[in-house]
Predict the 3D structure of the following.
Amino acid sequence: MKVATWNVNGIRARHQQFVDWASAEQPDVICLQELKSKLEQIPQICSIEGYNCYWHGAGAYSGVALIVRRSFASEVSFTHPEFDNETRIVEAQIEDTVFTSVYVPNGGKDFDAKIAFFNSLIGYAADVHRRGLKLVLCGDMNIARAEMDVHPKERKPRAIGQLPQERELFEKLLGQGLVDVGRTLYPEDENYFSWWAPWRNLRQRNIGWRLDYVLASAEIAKRAVSCPSQREVGTSDHAPVVATFA
């Protein structure tokens, strides 16, 4: 099983990059964030051969999608947790596993809203497991989990995304039975980032933050064999992160 997440930062500008990447990579489940588009503005995205697509984007802001390979699940129903707002979360249950694409608010304009959303996400993960289901939660969490998830030149103790309060919430989310797949596989990799500010060639120099995650229930996470951040792919300020499970 291969599960990918990518904050495309505007699908209209990167639709061909996405199609080419998806065709080559062939993930079973693709979680997209920050679509910044209505589906009618770019309908070809939901007509990729071999996939079912659910689009949850209202316009030039936010937006998430779930795209599932038909050979992996021929029929999928897509729903939203009740705390969804600003088109930030969509889920699909496939057999006993819930796959979720999420775009956590940045918090720069409304930090309280970010905290409220993240607390709801914690409750959501707990509820999925309480119902006896497994969870694969993917997306842009807008939190660098630990100091090593930020390049030393970018570490700012008062920066939103690096605050102790945010990191405590992240650990509480993991405490609901989830595993950070990437960090589990690469526990000592200090150059494992997924977002780079779009200036001073920071991406080329790999001076970034890790904001994009594949989190999975322990039963699934123990089967993970790789979870690279594909820095060479696309022109979004985020890279795709692709987890492969045996």
